[in-house]
Amino acid sequence: QGQLVESGGGLVQAGASLRLSCAASGLTFASYHMGWFRQAPGKEREFVAGITASGRSTSYADPVKGRFTISRDNAKNTVYLQMNSLKPEDTAVYYCAASLYNSRNQHNYGTWGQGTQVTVSS
Known about the structure:
The structure is a single chain. This protein is mostly beta strands. It has no helices and eleven strands. Strands 2, 4, 5, 6, 9, 10 and 11 form a seven-stranded mixed beta sheet that branches.
């Protein structure tokens, strides 16, 4: 199943930027589509961004389009989420996940990280 470990979260002011990283081990990283999801207090976990195994194709949830960028480095077994122009509504625990399918559905992701907290103050 492998292991995913997120890092890079923190407390920032509105308008600031953060870059999340997710390091993979124990799986053939270049074979997996990767996704970032988030869960805010009292809300369901939601899709944020996804990238295909090759890195050639990406997709984004509407609330983050134009502000967030997902990328990956298959040589380093790492996927990134660059978050710019952060808003208080971006506050959530952010999770990376791996899937054999190019999907926005969290149920298609079988390997998950432990999550990293992102808090954006107004």
